[in-house]
Design brief:
The protein has about 280 residues and is mainly α. It has 13 helices and no strands.
Length: about 280
Amino acid sequence: MKITKLEITILIDLVAITAFVLVPGSFSHPVILFLLLISGTLASMSASIFNNIYDMDIDMKMKRTRSRSGTLNMNTRSYIFSIGTAMIIISFALSSILINFLTALFIFGGFLSYVFLYTVFLKRRTTWNIVIGGIAGGFPALAGWAALTNSVSFTSLFLAFLVFMWTPTHFWNLSINNVDDYRDSEVPMLPAIVGVKKTEFWIIVNTVILVFYSLIPLFIPAIKLGLPYLPIAMVMDAALLYYVIRPAFKSYDKKYFRSAFGFSNMYLMILLLVIIIYPFI
């Protein structure tokens, strides 16, 4: 279903897997990984369902989201609400009983931060919505590490904040392509309030910070991501900077922001996959 936002769920699961495999001896616990993915997937899909239920009024005004009304409408809302509720209950029960309570708290924290912090409190109130709301994307890293260790580490915190720092660059490029929709629905996404040129400036600023942040493992040995991470990160950082700076030299043409949005997906996925695959090399 469109309202479960499968692409977000896949990314969240990938972040959780990355943190999980970084724990020494993780490959001896496939059952725990399976339970982690089931719990995380259910929580993510549930959060997306509640996000869409809350945003039914504005989704109808936006071209990108208007098609959701075919699945979620006044006739189906109660039924879908029940499904979302069952998903998050099952997720919390599975993770707290069969994994550990800290993992359950992190998974539930991701759910709460997306549904309440971002959707209810931030999205319609401030241009900081996606910046602060991006915290939701970091919880899977904490859950992935905690699933085996029942603790937090420099490594899991680094991954969590990497996703957090990546989110504005990713989403602001997307929102520029839908700026008219956000204006029509009165959602204060940054480009709808300050314009495309100023948003491009802040995309570049955020990306520069993200690039420097991605190289922190150079200076903190306790963050262990595997040997290929740093050289690949440097290459991907350079490419990401190219993609986000390019629109300023191309008359702010939206197609270049679409390219930057697409590459931002590739950027994070490659970094995560490099970390996941390294132990198999």
